[in-house]
């Protein structure tokens, strides 16, 4: 039983859905808030009540305290859960909730404030005898003084913005002669990003691991640690894979890190769920980095190895209940691992993506596989949208096993059952990561992705005969589904190469970087065993089992496959097993398809805002010349002329919000 009866979730996406899952189990009613971009979002649908709080930009909706507090008051919510991001580590918001008589499900404002700045946090941790990286974190900021400190610490050193995060305002300095320039650079970046150019200096650790300790405290002063998570697998200072326990960590170090994390929490009067981040070197020395005063994205791995529901614990602690266990009651059960499925392009420096999900299939959940998502499965070709306004994470897939090896195998199988079409994703990258030898051996570190980039980003591969065969079977299936109006029974309306009394022989052409691939299919009407010839080699093929929506089961040369094919003009997306293939299909029936490339009609690369139009009607342009610039996901994308020519029409103006595939310009 809980005394809290109604919780407002001041968040969106998977974390909002995650929090609501626990509320439903505990019989607590839920209030969602949503922006205009999220009117049809899952979190707004599954909540008992949902209220619109403003435009898509978070600054005007999810970050506006008054709007959220108004909804809480209006609906009579007892408490607000902030999730992660947005207002979760905003001490003003925590305070405003308490002032309004609403429980903030998180630590006291004073604890958030204490960990808000890196320099202040380090000073507090020093007092609490939590190990720190050797360095200077005081107030003095003049260059001569800081450079003398760097000398004392010994090169290489790292300059960090005190207000920093996400690697911004961070510079490695290898030798004394570079110090001045790097300091200026770090300060400039810090000023621009945080409006505060205060820096600190640390000994630079060459290739540390990121190991963090989950702590939990109640209002009665009991504080425990729920072991560690290794989050070393990162890119662009963002986590991609997290696991617990940390591979190879000794029991002695685990206990020392746990004790240090508990000391850190106690030093600031912490209450609720928190995470103390450490850097760990090869000799298992560990150093305090920062404390996150919220529930974290990767909390499910801790839930798996402890058997606890951290959101339930947060709610119970928030209403004043005592922690129902002591440190000695806690044990690690097996191994857990989480991967974050992102709309991003690993081949293009993990550039974030956006757009409508065209197909989405998650693995079956069990006691060993869990999926936390804020979007719905989309079996029929029009799913939820990954918005440019928010984080591009699609879902988290989490697995549990008796040991690390079993856990990896289970997670790999789960990812093989996962399919996403629409925006580019890191799904294949994640599968490759889980099969990487060094990763399987547990050789993780913060530079892992950079160091193994070549192995993790597979080279372009030729289209295999399975891929070509399955694509043809998918196209044949698709045609079966299509109603050939007006008279489906008439041979004149049949799109296939139907012949009276005879067998069909059809030719399918695909292109792959200029190379043409030809598949012929010989089949009889209503007969489910077409004979395929892939580039002259025969393969026995058969449709099997059921086919539903875009999915079909087939057998090729004795091997079973379940595949999904999406067909848009010339573009095919074929997904099966651990494959995600994008093919060019020379569709003889689609005039538009033939025309969709090289026809001079240029489209938005992803949904975004037009920030510049560099040409006018009738402008004569040279190949490669910038025509239009679209801003999306905080990056600018320049659309350039594919060849020399003349601008025929322009369909966008500066400031326009454009959808993916919207025609921007016609060009001759
Ligand atoms: C470090 C470090 C090496 N030595 N500090 C990166 C972001 C910020 N949270 C702290 N970071 C680091 N601090 C010292 N003294 C290396 C990193 C670092 C890193 C840390 C955690 C996870 C991924 C990382 C990737 C690159 C660098």
Name the helicity range.
Answer: 25-40%
Q: Looking at CATH, which topology of the largest domain would you report?
A: D-amino Acid Aminotransferase, Chain A, domain 1
Q: Tell me the number of structural domains.
A: 6
CATH class of the largest domain: Alpha Beta
What would the principal axes of the Cα set say about the shape? globular
Radius of gyration: 28 Å
Concise structural overview:
This protein is α+β, with helices and mostly antiparallel strands.
Describe this structure in words.
- The protein is 26% helix and 33% strand.
- It is of the alpha+beta class and 668 residues long.
- It has 6 domains: 6-105, Rossmann fold, CATH 3.40.50; 134-203, 2-Layer Sandwich (Dna Ligase, domain 1); 209-333, D-amino Acid Aminotransferase, Chain A, domain 1 (2-Layer Sandwich), CATH 3.30.470.20; 341-450, D-amino Acid Aminotransferase, Chain A, domain 1; 465-481 and 497-585, Glycoprotein, Type 4 Pilin, CATH 3.30.700; 601-667, OB fold (Dihydrolipoamide Acetyltransferase, E2P) (Beta Barrel).
- A hairpin with a 2-residue loop joins strand 29 (559-568) and strand 30.
- Helix 12 (404-416) runs antiparallel to helix 13.
- The longest helix is centred in the middle third of the chain and has 17 residues, at 251-267.
- The termini are far apart.
- The structure holds ligand MV4.
- Ligand MV4 binds at residues 133, 158, 167, 202-205, 208, 210, 234, 237, 279, 289, 446.
